[in-house]
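Query protein
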Amino acid sequence: MFTRRRLLKIGTAASLGIAAGAARAAASHGVWDPSRARVWQQQQGWLVGCNYIPSNAVNQLEMWQAETFNLATIKREVGWAANLGFTSVRVFLHDLLWAQDAHGFTDRVDAFLDVLHAHKMGALLVLFDSVWHPQPHLGPQPPPKPFVHNPGWVQSPGAALLQAPRAQQRVLLQYVKGIVSHFRNDKRVHGWDVWNEPDNTNSGSYGELEPKDKAGLVYPLLQEVFLSARAAKPTQPLTSGVWDGNWKSAGTLQPLETLMVKNSDVISFHSYGKPQALEQKINELRAWKRPLLCTEFMARPEGSTFEPCLEILKRNNVGAYCWGFVSGKTQTIYPWDSWKRPYRELPKQWFHDVLNADGTPYDPAEVTYIKRVTAKG
C-alpha cells in the first residue's frame, strides 16, 4: 500500500523474543499442503481485480459503518469492475467494526459479498493492516486532506492495542475467529489476507506516532492471528504478503517475513516496481512451490503499469490486484510523496486508480488493454 523502503529492518529472532522452534511449530500448525493449494488455484482460475473501497469512503471504517455503508455506490462500482473482466476484489475489514457491532458488521459484509456474487466475483478479505494512521476511531471519519494520497486510512489494530498487554489483545483474536468462522465455508470468499504490511513503520507519514520496535510487537500477535484463523477451520486459504526486502531464499528473509511465508497457504506479495522487478519477484517466490498472488501493484510513475504487468501476471498464473479502482475520497491518484511535497492541482499522471467517479476511464486505452487481457481466460 505504501511500499517505500523501510528505514528500520526487522531485528533478529532473539531481539523479537521468539524462539526459532516456536516459529517452526506455528508454521507447521495446519498449513495447507502445497498440493491442496494448487487444487484451490485450479478451482478459482486466474484471480484478477483491484483493492477496492467505494469512492465515497475515506477508509475502511467509513466503508463499513452502518451510518455510511452505501450499497448503491458499491453496486454501481462493482458493476464497473465486472465490466473490466475483474473476478475478485481485495477488501479491508477492521477489528473495531467487530467490537462495535459484530452482527451488523457481518450482515454488511454478507450484503457486499452478495453484490460480488451477482457479478460472478469474490473477495480476498484483509483482517488487519499496519499502514497509515495508527490511531483509528469509530464514528464520523475526518474529511480527506486536499491533494494528499490516502489521507484518512487507518491501521487495524491501532497502536494502543498493539502495545497493550496480551490479555487486552484477546478481543483481536475473538474478532479473527468470529469473522473467519462466520464465512469459513463461503465460496464468495476467495481467501483471507490476515495482515497487510505488518511491519510498515509509515516513516513518510505517521512515523512519529508509531510504537518503537513495531515488528517486535507484531510478531507474536501475528503468530496468534494465524493460529486463531486456522482454528476456525476455513475452507479458504490464509496468507500474509511480503512487501519489502530480499526474497531470494529462505535465508534472506527477515524473521517476520519467515513467519508470514511459512504460515501462508498461498504466497502473496506486493510489487510497485518496474516490470523486470515484478518478474524477478515472481521467480524468487516460486521456490516456495505454492500459488502466488500479487495483492498490490500498479503505480504509474514508479513504472508499475497495467501494460505489461498485467500480462506478466497472467502469463505466470499469478493472481493480480491493482491498487485502487474508482477515484474518490482516498485520493490515491496523488503520489506517495504528496505527504511531503505540496500539490495544488490534479496530477498529470494518476498514481493509482482506473476510473473517474462517474465510471469513465482515466485512460481509455488502458481500459481497453485490461479488457483484452482479462478476456483471455
